[in-house]
């Protein structure tokens, strides 16, 4: 049966989200259409609703489901109808999002889901892990990887380790052989340690930056800031070595002091499309 209409969570003219019947999207070149089985929430969802105010846009980024249609120019053998798939789209910006019965996504920025995974678990394989990969190996160009882990561990600070992206950063960093220093609320210490963190500090502690610096012997030169606000830049600055270091950000801010280089990434870059929210971006083939 061919469906032409679907239910979707849409931004209304007053900025609120409503469920409405809209047209089912059609996959374009290099795209697949997925019947959504589950969707996950991200901070970008509410922020895009609140600040983007795109009337008619479908909300939601992360999804998992089953492929129902394959668009033109998708590489042969990459996907077939009926495959389980997970990924992300730039929700709350276009008339296409994850909080809908169907979504259209990039065929090459989508993950094959094993049959053993539940839809609830698979729905998280979207923006968060890909953003974590960008933060570790796009913003930083000299860190080891899980495929080539270092045999001589050195410290990396994961600020906001219990966040959706932070949890993936901790796991990837540990698999790369790094000594993972993390921050979170005390209630999440056990969670963060279970993911691989070697040491966890309470970011509420007014001396936390200095304590991390002492714990690393003043040798910390790498950090991932998964919060990028509420004073995180100063805490990280206090924790880094006197010589400075590199910090990858989820949201841009100025370097807190001389010797510290900062670089921000956003998963939307991977979709291979220009966009004008949350900032203006023209497609860069080197990133896609």
TrEMBL record:
Residues 12-274 form the Enoyl reductase (ER) domain. InterPro entries: ADH-like_C (IPR013149), ADH-like_N (IPR013154), ER (IPR020843), GroES-like_sf (IPR011032), NAD(P)-bd_dom_sf (IPR036291), Trans-enoyl_RdTase-like (IPR047122). Gene3D superfamilies: Medium-chain alcohol dehydrogenases, catalytic domain, NAD(P)-binding Rossmann-like Domain. One of its GO terms (molecular function) is oxidoreductase activity, acting on NAD(P)H. PANTHER family: HYPOTHETICAL OXIDOREDUCTASE (EUROFUNG) (PTHR45348), ZINC-TYPE ALCOHOL DEHYDROGENASE-LIKE PROTEIN C2E1P3.01 (PTHR45348:SF2). Pfam families: ADH_N, ADH_zinc_N. It comes from the Eukaryota. CDD domains: enoyl_reductase_like. This is Enoyl reductase (ER) domain-containing protein.
């Amino acid at each position: 049966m061919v469906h032409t209409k679907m239910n979707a969570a849409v931004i209304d003219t007053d900025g609120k989200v409503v469920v409405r019947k809209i047209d089912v999207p059609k996959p374009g070149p290099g795209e697949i259409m997925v019947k959504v089985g589950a969707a996950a929430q991200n901070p970008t969802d509410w922020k895009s609703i609140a600040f983007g105010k795109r009337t008619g846009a479908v909300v939601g980024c992360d999804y998992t489901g089953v492929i129902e249609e394959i668009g033109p120019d998708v590489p042969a053998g990459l996907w077939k109808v009926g495959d389980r798939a997970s990924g992300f789209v730039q929700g709350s910006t276009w008339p296409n999002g994850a909080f809908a019965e169907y979504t259209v996504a990039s065929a090459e920025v989508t993950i094959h889901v094993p049959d053993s995974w539940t839809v609830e678990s698979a729905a998280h394989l979207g923006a968060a892990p890909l953003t974590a990969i960008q933060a570790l190996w796009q913003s930083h160009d000299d860190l080891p990887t899980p495929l080539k882990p270092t045999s001589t561990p050195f410290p990396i600070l994961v600020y906001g380790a219990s966040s959706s992206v932070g949890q993936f950063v901790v796991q990837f960093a540990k698999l790369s052989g790094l000594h993972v220093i993390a921050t979170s609320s005390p209630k999440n210490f056990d969670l963060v340690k279970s993911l691989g963190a070697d040491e966890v500090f309470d970011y509420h502690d007014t001396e936390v930056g200095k304590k991390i610096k002492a714990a690393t012997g003043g040798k910390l030169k790498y950090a991932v800031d998964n919060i990028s606000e509420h004073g995180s830049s100063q805490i990280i600055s206090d924790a880094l070595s006197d010589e400075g270091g590199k910090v990858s950000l989820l949201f841009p801010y100025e370097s807190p002091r001389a010797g510290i280089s900062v670089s921000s990434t956003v998963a939307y870059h991977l979709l291979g499309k220009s966009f004008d929210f949350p900032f203006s971006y023209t497609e860069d083939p080197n990133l896609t």
